[in-house]
Structures
1.
Amino acid sequence: MSRFRNAGVVGLAAAFLSLAAATSTADLAHRKFARIETGKLAAGTRVDLSVAELSAWASDEARLYAPGAVRNIHLRLSDGAATGSMLVDFLKLHQAATGEAPGWLMKNLFAGERQVTVTGRFESRNRRARVDVDRVEVSGVPIEGATLTFLIDNFLRPTFPDVKVDEWFPLGFHMDRFTVSPVGVSVYITR
């Protein structure tokens, strides 16, 4: 009996350590973003964010912005590109973004969690950046081309008006550019 109790204690301790590590990783990412957002970093400064930090930060932000709407976020980076996968409850996400209760159509088409995978490319230079969404999969169904453009224009932009997709936008906080690589994102500061 004591072996089972000890195994339970060890399992519980491992769960707490895992949670503490994720929290400290998210806290580290939040501190790095806060340093950038002060706008006071010296020219030539480079701030590196690891894949683990970005994943923990994204999970933390999702919990704050839309509790219960997005979970199990996983990021995979490559040179100039990223793929993110997550479970999304579109009804909760819509309600968090707009404050409105979903209508009949939304309830019937989007009820429950869906596995969502988004693949995009990133470019930045001269204090400007661009994010191009190449592909979205919802529950394994690919959404590309004109259908993807339609969803971006008619769902994403109205729900999240500050999001810039498929267009150049200015970088703030004295950022000159950022690079995306398999190990993370590096942000370069200029004056």
2.
Amino acid sequence: MHDLNFIRENSNLFDDLLKSRFLDPQSKKILDLDSKKRDLLTKSQEMRSERKNLSSSFSKLAENEKLKIQQKVQQIKSDIDTLEKQLTIIDIQLKDILSSIPNLPHADVPIGKDEEFNKIVKTVGEIPKFDFTPKPHYELGENLEMLDFEQASKVSGTRFVYLKNQLARLERAIANFMLDKHTTEFGYTEIIPPNMVRDAAAYGTGQLPKFSEDLFKTNTDHWLIPTAEVPLTNLVLDTILQEDQLPQRLTAWTPCYRSEAGAAGRDTRGMIRQHQFSKVELVSITKEEDSEKELERMLNCATSILDDLKVSYQIMLLSSGDMGFSAEKTYDIEVWLPGENKYREISSCSNCRSFQARRMNARYKTNEQNKFVHTLNGSGLAVGRTLIAVLENYQNKDGSITIPDVLIPYMGNIEKISKV
């Protein structure tokens, strides 16, 4: 959500920043409605004052004057009711417009319509060399008889999979390793959040109203979470925190559910794009002056997982047209997948500044005033895609998978996964 005061004072800048998001100017429409609202509020206040004055003088009037005053008071009340209805309509219109406009990009963000304009920040690690042609993860898993897409399709349809035996254990090992590192080394608090949320929570983080088609909805009017960002960030929904309660750093391993409405024909093989997948999420709630440094910290927490797994990755600064709706600035982490011979996204880390907090009405107290918190989120990491990265980077010629050193304790000290 955007600050009306900012738009009033910086209408040209607001429109210029929207243009960098490849959107039409919106300030005139917003400020016209805002002006009408303020005019109506002034009229309403004047009418209420007049009605109060008339009512206070009523007992002093002669009987023949009281009827006229009663009629006038009733007319004013009717006029106020009409104004209130008009104000309600304008409030709805303003909220609809402001709710549909994405966050404004940070000055560092490269301007561009899509991923072609993303900027490589750095590349880490060496691309592995094999003395055989590396296979994609789905072939490796099916050959091990530990990934079953066919049966999952019969049971649930496309974009689902059964993980079996040691690959099921490997996914759990990856998640446990991530959680242990983020909690013990980086000070995140582990949370087990609800996997279903109400409209207000999905609205607060920016999934509603614009992206409802990307979500799954239950027959109880709950939304299945597309990421743990939603319930974690909403821990501060409608709250006022003390300044010394910040920062709050939260992490959770949850299933995530996405309809992939815009992904028809994309990544139809394997586990890259599923309706259900698991992710270890990182969320930070900070003071406004701390959020930019917190984004760099969160990015380092996420990349440390790949450093420990010893796989190559690159960090991308997303362009203005490729960023998510709520983000002011986003880094993508892309891991090298030998089976695809390219880098693929495994995490996005975003600073949303006060954008989500305004929607959630989440503030903190300072000596001078109450301010909106700043919110950040990132994958630390997508567990299924990390499993893919391990399978493809640690594959052997015979189809077995060597276990990365840091995961061996989580795998009961086995060092390799082979066909049973």
3.
Amino acid sequence: MTSFRGLAIVALAAVSIIGAGCKKKVAVAAPPPPAPQPTVAASRPQPVAQQPRTVARTAAPQQASQPQRLPNAVTRARIDTLLARIEDAYFDYNKYSLRPDAIQALQADSTELRDILKDYPDYKLTLEGHCDERGSAEYNMALGQERAQAAKDYLVQVGIPSDQLATISYGKERPVCDEHDEACWQKNRHIHIVAQAQAQE
């Protein structure tokens, strides 16, 4: 009987030990790791939509259609035609004041000439003053300048800008007639208008 009890105790002890061992194994086995949580887009900081930067730029000056400062070939030809139609203004002997016929000569087509020139500020005309052969070279140079200036003053009154009109005197150096009489001398006492580019050729 005692030996049976002893066997029973040993059996119970063995079962306890095995049970404890099993429990220990169960306790040791770690539970499977939790499934990774799906990454939620909202959990990440969303990039802030950047507003387009307003860069303070200096606005490039608009190439406002600037007027041409010199006429094209067609307009130059038109100016040349007008200049050819404007007759030379003639003067009395030893005078530089404009006679009525000289004013009439300058008046012809000068309004149209003015309307063209104001659109081309770099285009200039030259008023040439001329004299007859009588008198000294120095005297006639001064007289020719006065005649050119008188013509310029008139054209400025018409409305042609002063800075587009140059004056020059040739005195008696460029006669248009070589006879030694009043009819010839009258032809030499005049002013003549040319485009400045032509005057410099």
